[in-house]
Specification:
It is a single chain. This protein is an alpha+beta fold and 269 residues long. It is built from two helices and 15 strands. The strands form four sheets. Strands 2-8-7-4-5 form a five-stranded mixed β-sheet, with no helix packed on it. The chain has a four-stranded antiparallel β-sheet with strand order 12-11-14-15, with no helix packed on it. It has a three-stranded antiparallel β-sheet with strand order 1-3-6, with no helix packed on it. Strand 11 (174-180) and strand 12 form a beta hairpin. The longest helix is centred in the last third of the chain and has 26 residues, at 243-268.
Length: 269
């Protein structure tokens, strides 16, 4: 009888566990729209432990995916995790979705993502988009005037790029720039949006940059021109010397000296 009671309890526990609902695999993104070359953060919940594949695919049947930027991550027993995914248009264009699946394909889930510059034309054809960044045919840094910068306030600079698209298709470009004093600057630069460059088009792009106060010394500017296929690096240097502030300091030292000389001359008469 005692064994039967224990067996009944074990059977009840097993039935309870068996009847517990299984969490549904879910995919969420940190943004609803992105450009080729940018990254979206993919968050996963409710997945079984193991490796999953993350891809950006179209919504067709069967769907085609941008395999060059796909990612794989291993999820722990909690079934939760995440990773950045680089955006690249699938071969058949968009509308698009981020698709996550287990390695054997038993479970999958999706989340919609609008991809700028990767749309399907009416009639089922896909607009061709270049994947190589434009060529930088000219680059220089302009010094923007302003008297406050002469006294240690933030100084303004403008990186001027002349870009040319040598590809036979339009190219979508995202700019990513940083500025700072060290060899690897980390100061954030709010880069402007750049409309797609048509095939063979040459265009001037201006990136405003602020050197934070107190602006003094040498600065490095690092940037990248990012497309769906690769990135092109851009580097520049600039400097700023607050001569007005130096003049004020010199004047602050000189005035007491002159006053003391006059006092001595007056007392010596």
């Amino acid at each position: 009888m005692r064994w039967s009671a224990y067996g009944a309890v074990a059977l009840l526990a097993a039935l309870t566990l068996t009847g517990a609902p299984t969490p549904e695999p879910r995919v969420t993104l940190d943004r609803a729209e992105a450009r080729p070359g940018e990254q979206v953060l993919v968050r996963l919940t409710g997945w079984p432990a193991g490796t999953v594949v993350i891809e950006l695919c179209d919504t067709g049947t069967p769907s085609r995916c941008a395999v060059d930027t796909s990612a794989q991550i291993h999820l722990p027993d909690t079934g939760a995790g995440g990773t950045p995914l680089t955006v690249a248009a699938p071969p058949d264009g968009c509308p698009c979705q981020v698709r996550v699946r287990t390695m054997e394909g038993r479970l999958s889930a999706t989340a919609p993502l609008r991809v700028t510059g990767a749309t399907r034309r009416p009639g089922g054809t896909v607009r061709s988009v270049a994947t190589r960044p434009p060529v930088v045919v000219g680059a220089h840094v302009e010094r923007d005037g302003g008297w406050p910068a002469l006294f240690g306030a933030s100084a303004q600079r403008t990186v001027v790029l002349r870009l040319r698209n040598d590809e036979s298709a339009p190219v979508a470009v995202a700019l990513s720039f940083s500025v700072g004093r060290g060899p690897e600057p980390t100061g954030f630069v709010a880069s402007p949006d750049v409309p797609d460059l048509a095939a063979g088009e040459e265009r001037v792009v201006r990136i405003p940059i602020s050197l934070p106060a107190p602006a003094v010394g040498d600065y490095r500017i690092h940037g990248e021109l990012v497309t769906s296929g690769s990135a092109r690096r851009v580097e520049a240097t600039t400097d700023h010397q607050p001569w007005g502030l130096a003049g004020l300091l010199a004047l602050a030292v000189l005035v007491p000296v002159v006053a003391e000389l006059r006092r001595r001359r007056s007392s010596g008469r």
